[in-house]
Amino acid sequence: MKILVDTPIWSYALRSQNKKYQAEINELTLLIRDQKAMIMGPIRQEILSGYSDIRKYKKLREKLSYFENAPILDSDYELAAELCNKCRRKGIQGSHIDFLICAVAKRMDAPVFTMDKDFSQYKKIISLKLHKI
Questions:
Q1: Angle 18-55-38 from CA coordinates, rounded to 5°
Q2: Distance separating alpha carbons of residues 112 and 101, to the nearest angstrom
Q3: Which CATH number is associated with domain 3-71+109-126?
Q4: 8, 39, 95, 105: which has the fewest C-beta neighbours closer than 10 Å?
């Protein structure tokens, strides 16, 4: 089973020297080793947007190119809007990208690996699978 890895996990693994995130980094390492880590375009964009040094940017872009890119279908955008509306009716707000991640993950039946606590709130409303360590 593929796991859709969210931006914060990639960021911890690529940028953080903080031992606080070592369990997440170790888990991502295992997912990569087992070829289960998956990324999607908007997450790739978020990760790459933090680099002003062109050499570091190109090096990271090359590393990320090895990971399977979860395709985004037109129907995912519609489902993302539906999920957003459903959560909003229950008083839970979220970003458009978060709901797009949820939609793609639901369609692909893939858990989301994230540290973003918003996803735990979404899960209460939209039966999202989250990857646990």
A1: 60
A2: 8
A3: 3.40.50.1010
A4: 95
Q: Which residues contact 27 (CB under 8 A, 6 or more apart)?
A: 113, 131, 133
Q: How far apart are CA 110 and CA 96, in angstroms?
A: 19
Nearest to 3 by CA among 29, 11, 17, 50: 29
pTM score: 0.91
pLDDT tens digits for range 5-41:
999 999 888 877 778 889 999 999 999 999 999 999 9
pLDDT along the chain (133 residues), means of 10: 95 82 94 96 92 91 90 98 97 96 97 96 96 93
Length of the chain: 133
Helix (H) or strand (E) holding 68: strand 68-70
117, amino acid identity:
K
